[in-house]
TrEMBL record:
InterPro entries: Ppnp (IPR009664), RmlC-like_jellyroll (IPR014710), RmlC_Cupin_sf (IPR011051)
GO molecular function: guanosine phosphorylase activity; purine-nucleoside phosphorylase activity; thymidine phosphorylase activity; uridine phosphorylase activity
Function summary: Catalyzes the phosphorolysis of diverse nucleosides, yielding D-ribose 1-phosphate and the respective free bases. Can use uridine, adenosine, guanosine, cytidine, thymidine, inosine and xanthosine as substrates. Also catalyzes the reverse reactions.
Similarity section: Belongs to the nucleoside phosphorylase PpnP family.
Any one GO CC term of the record: cytosol
Enzyme Commission (EC) number: 2.4.2.1, 2.4.2.2
Coiled coil: none
Catalysed transformations (reactions): a purine D-ribonucleoside + phosphate = a purine nucleobase + alpha-D-ribose 1-phosphate; cytidine + phosphate = cytosine + alpha-D-ribose 1-phosphate; thymidine + phosphate = 2-deoxy-alpha-D-ribose 1-phosphate + thymine; xanthosine + phosphate = alpha-D-ribose 1-phosphate + xanthine
Protein name stated in the entry: Pyrimidine/purine nucleoside phosphorylase
C-alpha cells in the first residue's frame, strides 16, 4: 500500500533522540494507528506497549529483537515485528524511511 485514504494525521510530530528520529501519527476510522517517520543514522533503543510491525520503505538498519542474540539486517522493502511490552535496539546505517503499525 503506497497511500492511506480517509485518515486523520496528527500535526504535532513525535521527536526522539534530539531530532534524529521523527514521526507523525496516522489515525484510521476503525481505530487503527500507524506512524510514518524518518530515522537518521545512529544507535537507538525503543520500548513498545503494543505489538509493532515496522516496515522499512527505504534505507538500511540492523535490529536486535527482544531476547535475540544476533543483529538482523533490514533494508527498504522489508519489515520486522516486535512483541508487545518489550524493547528493541536499532543501528541505522543509512537514513531510514519507515511505517510502524501498532497491533492491539
Amino acid at each position: 500500500m503506497n497511500s492511506f485514504d480517509n485518515v486523520s494525521v496528527v500535526k504535532k510530530a513525535n521527536v526522539y533522540f534530539g531530532g534524529k528520529v521523527t514521526s507523525r501519527a496516522v489515525l484510521f476510522p476503525n481505530g487503527e494507528k500507524k506512524t510514518l517517520g524518518i530515522m537518521m543514522p545512529g544507535e537507538y533503543e525503543f520500548g513498545t506497549e503494543d505489538k509493532e510491525i515496522m516496515e522499512i520503505m527505504a534505507g538500511e538498519l540492523d535490529v536486535m529483537l527482544p531476547g535475540g542474540e544476533n543483529w538482523i539486517t533490514v533494508k527498504g522493502g522489508q519489515s520486522f515485528e516486535v512483541a508487545a511490552n518489550s524493547k528493541f535496539k536499532l543501528v541505522v546505517k543509512e537514513l531510514a524511511d519507515y511505517c510502524c503499525s501498532y497491533i492491539k
